[in-house]
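Dear colleague,

Following up on yesterday's call, I've attached the two folding results inline so they're easy to grep. Please treat them as preliminary; we haven't cross-checked anything against experimental data yet. The first protein's sequence and structure tokens come first.
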Amino acid sequence: MFDFDATLPFMALQFLLLAALLNVIFYKPLTKVLDDRDNYIRTNTLEARERLAKAERLAQEYEQQLAEARRQSQATIEAAQTEAKEITAQKIAEAQKEAQAQREQAAVEIEQQKQEAMRSLEQRVDALSRQILEKLLGPSLV
């Protein structure tokens, strides 16, 4: 059934040469390309992870800086509002003092005018009283 003549070793030698030739021409470059591709993917994946981690750190830092800036601006706004309230209260107090001083000045002036009016009235009453007495009693008796 099996014939073991010179063709069997020749066929085996052809198979080994074909395998060696395919290994050198096809399989080694193919495995090199696959290894290079795997290394490229691996390095790109690591770089992408590092960049993502860096981006997340930067985003977190920016968020912290933004929160700090918001706190500072809120504190500045509150300080400005407090200062504005104090200035407003001070201006109101000054205006009230000025109004009170004007009222007091007006009261003093009114009182002076009242006193002058009273003196003037007293003088007129005295003059009219004399005139009445002179008419009634005569100028010699008054």
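Below is the second protein, in the same order (sequence, then structure):
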Amino acid sequence: MTELQRDNKTDVAQGPYLRGERIQLRRPTPKDTNYVFHWERDDEVWRYDIHRPYSRTMGEFLPTFERNYIRGNGRQFWFIIEDENRIPIGTITYFNVDNRMGQAEIGLGLGDKTRWGQGYGPEAIRTLVRYIFTLPGIRRVYAETALANHPSRRAFAKAGFVEVGQIYDPRSTGELWVLLEIWKSHTV
């Protein structure tokens, strides 16, 4: 994919800068390390996902953040969600891009709990979905979330996703999860 480009002088990820009404989505930079480290360690932020990413120390986290968030691994594409004051409040990602099936998966993590319930999640989802549907051949975007994660399910519903059924936790815990989707033909 051409969306991740490098500035050879600074080695900072460059890519699309996506704007919503109140939020911006931008590629992560080293300045975001502290935010993401603390968000991933917050039990309340991750209460519905026992398989969350977790690093005990910043030293343990730094290589993962650099490799996955900043440089990108070519399979998962991360964005920092900024509010209207350009303050980082969470992350959003798309991954499992399947060009043959014309689909991609999306995941949201609103790390700043003071922003929960204020519409930032649905806006970030809508903004990223609009971008994903500009990628060649992508017709469907889907998400998987814990059945008990009502805030996530509401955020995706507000962004136009429809619940299509229950599935078992894709990481094999046996918990029930919900599959949600939106089709390009159903977006405005």
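For the second protein, one point worth flagging: The first strand starts at residue 5 and ends at 6.

Best wishes,
A.L.
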